[in-house]
């Protein structure tokens, strides 16, 4: 209890600094991979903190890493808190990633303060990892490939939403780029000499729309026609669509991808176009559950006044996707969602205002810092109790076996 009290006192004492950090990121929204100001602001924040080692441009241009460990002590358990800070085009921080960065920073400071208050030297290292480009290509996946998570043992982050939930199911997702190549011709004088790439795009769009009624209710396919021609009196020689397919678990993605590809290829066959299908970005995995971490987080959150619905009105069919899912497949972790004082939905202008605009920011702050405390207190539980750590790792092992469909997960 004394360590958890230290967490709360630290976060409360730093609330002004943390609010300024979040507000500065919110005020300069930057798109995925271009989060230069957010990167520099977070690097400056931790560089000014005592005893933190900070690495700029860590493995990616706008990623960073800040680390702390007790002086002279062995480093056995590396506990990481993740920050996101990319914004959305046109509507800024409508997913509240400035608040994710604040939660990660606050939770790390809180855990450090708690460990500094105890006479027992826990063999712990705290890492804050800045993970850019969640909204597009999946910066965490690129960081995994670059070895940024290789020495991390536990990982924590939290995401703004409409409700508090220790676990909110997310969907695996794959992006597809579909390009049709036809033949231009005068659309009125010699239309029979053309091959209409826009017709292929429209057929593909309709094919997918028909497919939707035949797929599982918790799967999703979304898409847009990105390019459809240049001029009304020219038969379009080129068209382009962007699609994504989402499934409950990553192991189901190949099945839905094959169905979608059949729709795209059928449109090419029907119109005489050539089709080119590619897969930009990284595959996002679903998040593996960890019942032990989730129970600890609920207990700590409840003690702080967080109200968790017994049956959250979330369901898999209403879920989004995150590259944290990929992290959850290699390291035990938790990714709760938290209320920020608004019923507005993510990816709306109203949510942007709630995440950082006055008076929304003031309201969101108390919920954000409360979440940071709950995360840090959950880390305290695991750090201080080897049996809990063992159970967290066992939960992780069993979840992987179940999702990958190998071994005995009973």
TrEMBL record:
Coiled coil: none annotated. CDD domains: M20_ACY1L2-like. Residues 177-269 form the Peptidase M20 dimerisation domain. Gene3D superfamilies: 3.30.70.360, Zn peptidases (3.40.630.10). Pfam families: M20_dimer, Peptidase_M20. One of its GO terms (molecular function) is dipeptidase activity. Belongs to the peptidase M20A family. This is Peptidase M20 domain-containing protein 2.
């Amino acid at each position: 209890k004394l360590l958890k009290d230290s967490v709360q006192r630290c976060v409360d004492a730093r609330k002004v600094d943390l609010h300024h950090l979040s507000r500065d990121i919110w005020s300069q929204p930057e798109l995925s991979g271009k989060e230069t100001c957010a990167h520099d602001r977070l690097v400056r924040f931790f560089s000014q903190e005592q005893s933190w080692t900070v690495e700029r441009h860590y493995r990616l241009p706008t990623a960073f890493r800040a680390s702390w460990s007790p002086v002279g002590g062995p480093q056995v358990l590396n506990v990481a808190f993740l920050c996101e800070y990319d914004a959305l085009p046109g509507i800024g921080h409508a997913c509240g990633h400035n608040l994710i960065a604040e939660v990660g920073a606050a939770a790390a400071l809180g855990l450090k303060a708690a460990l500094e208050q105890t006479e027992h030297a826990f063999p712990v290292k705290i890492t804050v990892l800045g993970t850019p480009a969640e909204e597009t290509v999946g910066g965490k996946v690129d960081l995994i490939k670059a070895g940024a998570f290789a020495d991390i043992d536990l990982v924590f982050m939290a995401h703004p939403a409409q409700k508090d939930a220790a676990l909110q199911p997310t969907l695996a997702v794959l992006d597809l780029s579909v390009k049709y190549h036809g033949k231009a011709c005068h659309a009125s004088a010699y239309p029979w000499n053309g091959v209409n790439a826009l017709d292929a795009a429209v057929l593909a769009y309709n094919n997918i729309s028909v497919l939707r009624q035949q797929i599982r209710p918790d799967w999703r396919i979304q898409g847009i026609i990105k390019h459809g021609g240049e001029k009304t009196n020219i038969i379009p020689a080129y068209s382009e669509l962007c699609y994504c397919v989402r499934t409950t678990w990553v192991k189901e993605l190949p099945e839905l991808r094959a169905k979608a590809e059949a729709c795209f290829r059928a449109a090419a066959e029907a119109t005489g176009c050539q089709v080119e299908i590619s897969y930009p970005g990284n595959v996002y995995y679903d998040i593996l559950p960890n019942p032990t971490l989730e129970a600890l987080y609920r207990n700590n959150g409840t003690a702080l006044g967080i109200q968790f619905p017994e049956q959250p009105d979330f369901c898999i069919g209403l879920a989004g996707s995150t590259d944290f899912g990929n992290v959850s497949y290699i390291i035990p972790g938790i990714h709760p969602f938290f209320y920020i004082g608004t019923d507005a939905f993510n990816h709306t202008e109203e949510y942007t205002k709630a995440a950082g605009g006055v008076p929304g920011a003031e309201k969101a702050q108390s919920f954000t810092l409360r979440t940071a405390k709950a995360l840090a207190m959950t880390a305290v539980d695991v750090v201080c109790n080897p049996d809990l750590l063992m159970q967290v790792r066992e939960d992780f092992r069993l979840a992987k076996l179940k999702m990958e469909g190998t071994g005995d997960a009973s």
